[in-house]
Amino acid sequence: MIDARTFRDTMGRVPTGVCVITTKHADGALDGVTVGSFASLSLDPPLVIWSLDKKANCNEGFMKATHFAVNVLSEDQTDLSRVFATKEARPWEKLEHTPAEQTGSPLFRGCCAYMECAMETIHDGGDHDIFVGRVLNLQPAPAGRPLLHFGGAYRRLDEDKVD
Q1: Residues 9-49 pLDDT 10s
Q2: 8 dihedral zone (left: phi>0; alpha: psi -120 to 50; beta)
Q3: For residue 155, which of 36, 33, 6, 9 has the smallest C-alpha distance?
Q4: pTM assigned to the model
Q5: Cα–Cα distance measured from residue 54 to residue 59, given in angstroms and rounded to the nearest whole number
């Protein structure tokens, strides 16, 4: 049997990008969460995938969501990541954001990239739910470096490229 702590520590050795996934519900309420599980799933059609702990405060909101936005955080957005990584209520009134063009989901200035998605499917994934979204609109930043997570801490890219 695999020990949960050892599994978590081992998976922490896999570097991930840090994203804040947001949504705006039909009643106008906003939800958001920091994830390191975001990835591309398919080019044709353009699909993305991410997961969320079933015990997360915002899980129910995302389970009901029809759309969501992906904010790919830049290396100077650790504070924003921390806001959405807690179980505390989100201070939306203090966060500078704009509604996404097609979905109205919150977008944060200064990110490396943005994607607006329609909820395609949701799958059971053990103690997490797996969300698949169809990309409707996207915008990469012309420059900028991503915020990374590795070994239980935020990290930055080194300037050097490896060929």
Answers
A1: 898 888 899 999 999 999 999 999 999 999 999 999 999 99
A2: alpha
A3: 36
A4: 0.92
A5: 6
Alpha-carbon distance values, 15 to 64, 134, 152, 153, 163 (Å): 30, 24, 10, 10, 18
Q: Are 79 and 56 in contact (CB under 8 A)?
A: no
Residue labelled with tokens 């947001």: 22
Q: Are 70 and 19 in contact (CB under 8 A)?
A: yes
Return the SS3 of 29. Answer: coil
Element holding 78 (H helix, E strand) = helix 78-84
Amino acid at residue number 18: V
pLDDT in tens, 111-147: 999 999 999 999 999 999 999 999 999 999 887 899 9
Tell me the CATH number for domain 4-38+57-117+138-155.
2.30.110.10
